[in-house]
């Protein structure tokens, strides 16, 4: 015998109360627990019972229930959806949906789809689906709570079953339509991934060549392609993306002789505190930070159902949201509800808490919380370790909740598969100007493709700070530049050299469309002479001779006198005869300046 009303009078009263209130952020108190039980009893349970009774009448269907009492933003829910789908199709693309719509204050059942609206490859098809649904008049079959008090369950279930039977042919057609394009999308992505892997077999790249060959310029275009999966349509687009992602998915650093491990990975830096005292604090370097961000995303995407592996920043922001947004203290439970402590303030380096029993206050270091959460350090005995433990436990609970709530957000639109982690790029300009062994330290081993997280033979190391299990993820790319003319510094050692792929950038004499640069003939002959007297590593790059469209053309004599000839004097150790010799057969006249004694090029008409 079926139960009579969907909503009891008490349930309807609670539902009306919930939908007229603003969504409430969840806090650890008894009122929230009571509200959660009410949501389960009066919103979630009836929706699940509705679906159960429908599939009793439709045995070819299966159901996916949503039993969460919190939304993806940590708020108490005002809705409950259940998805029904044919077993032969699976829970992809199209499905029937029924449940409680808190925003609309009603029950609804309709046909909906999970993916496609945001996928350009499926846009046309999903527009057709929307059109078909609207023409069918089934985008929103609604029953308002007041009517439900007169409804019995038999009528509600009968109408729902009749609706599904009536529109099952449409459901099948739409599923076939979407599925065909999901397969095509998956194939296109597989082909693009294979092409990308073939083009970038090594995640470590060094662009090398003489000065002025566009190495630093090319790093931005290369970074764009690594981040977006395709070359930029223009250099301006590469510059724009670089600025947008700098400090996020892109970092840029220039090596120099005093650059060391402490700047690159981890070290201790002096700092003046708020009492004007000089203190020394641990400081993470640029490589450490971008490796951490890339690793967080790699773990999140490659293992989306693994508890506690969401990035620390995402979970910590959820924990302290009431504190930062509303100034509300966050209660953290200990062994039982009777024992708690409150998070009361947040700075850039500390999380301050108040003990419940004696009201005393202390600070928890954010870096320590992060390391404990990520499992790179262990707990110690005594001190504040008990409080660290309970905060980290709460963070892991929140991570599990977010995982359950947002797992589908990590699914590749149009395929139902987990999206691959995005790439990250660290650009190292003048990579050979620093002591490479000193800068990279033990990380040299981890740079190899197969030794990275996600590789065939992943390795991790313990950093000098004591942080264990540090590794380099597969989605972090390194792009270095190396000036081959600078022989005053050490070249890369063999250990690092074999871990990088080298791409040569030498002078070119024409635009991409084949149009020769102005004075290309003289420019080419100049480089031929330099190569004969020195080597090809000392040629003059084309950047010296290229005009910028946004600036007036620089006279050739000025380019030679202000940029090229001073460089040649350095190449040939101030030997004027050798400098003059490289201008042989170039058609350029070079004479000694009586005032300075230096060679100068006469103006070129």
UniProtKB/TrEMBL annotation:
Coiled coil: none
SUPFAM superfamilies: P-loop containing nucleoside triphosphate hydrolases
Entry superkingdom: Bacteria
A Pfam family per the record: AAA_5
GO molecular function annotation: ATP binding; ATP hydrolysis activity
InterPro entries given in the database record: AAA+_ATPase (IPR003593), ATPase_dyneun-rel_AAA (IPR011704), Methyl-DNA_Rec/Restrict_Enz (IPR052934), P-loop_NTPase (IPR027417)
Positions of the AAA+ ATPase domain: 201-510
Descriptive protein name: AAA family ATPase
